[in-house]
Amino acid sequence: QVQLLESGGGLVQAGGSLRLSCAASGRTFSLYAMAWFRQAPGQEREFVGAKNWSGGNLYYADSVKGRFTISRDNARNTVYLQMTRLKPEDTARYYCAAQLPSPAYSSTYYMPGSYPYWGQGTQVTVSS
């Protein structure tokens, strides 16, 4: 069982940066694949990026590739989403998610339904 708590959201101007944090409970954090999703009002939850255990593969949505970076600190049970060159279209509620990777992880990492554990989300608003 994992509990997740996001922080770091806020209001930022276009072109600015934010770093989101997701603190996880549990002693087996290093075993979990962690991901970030986002959801804007009236839209479906959208994959942003994912990182498997330390040293594992990194995945990003095309819309954020080159601008967003995921990192994790297993000693602190925390995963980060560094967001740079933010755009108004990045405005959304950002959610952290976790799963124990299944054999199908490499083909399901972007699917919200493959993650059983979710945080409450943190709002990011980018003004133009």
Describe the structure.
There is one protein chain. Helices cover 3% and strands 46% of the residues. The protein has 128 residues and is mainly beta. Strand 5 (46-51) and strand 6 (58-60) form a beta hairpin. The strands form 2 sheets. Strands 2, 4, 5, 6, 9, 10 and 11 form a 7-stranded mixed β-sheet that branches. Strands 1-3-8-7 form a 4-stranded antiparallel β-sheet, with no helix packed on it. The mean pLDDT is 93. It has one helix spanning 105-108, and strands at residues 4-7, 10-13, 18-24, 33-39, 46-51, 58-60, 68-73, 78-83, 92-99, 117-118, 122-127. It has 1 helix and 11 strands.
Order of helices and strands: EEEEEEEEEHEE
Structural class by secondary-structure content: mainly beta
- Which bin fits the share of residues in helices? under 10%
Give the averaged pLDDT, no decimals.
93
Outline the low-pLDDT stretches. none
How is the quaternary structure best described? single chain
Distance between the termini: 40 Å
Biggest sheet, in brief?
7 strands, mixed
Please write out the topology.
Layout: E1 4-7, E2 10-13, E3 18-24, E4 33-39, E5 46-51, E6 58-60, E7 68-73, E8 78-83, E9 92-99, H1 105-108, E10 117-118, E11 122-127
Parallel strand pairs: 2-11
Antiparallel strand pairs: 1-3, 3-8, 4-5, 4-9, 5-6, 7-8, 9-10, 9-11
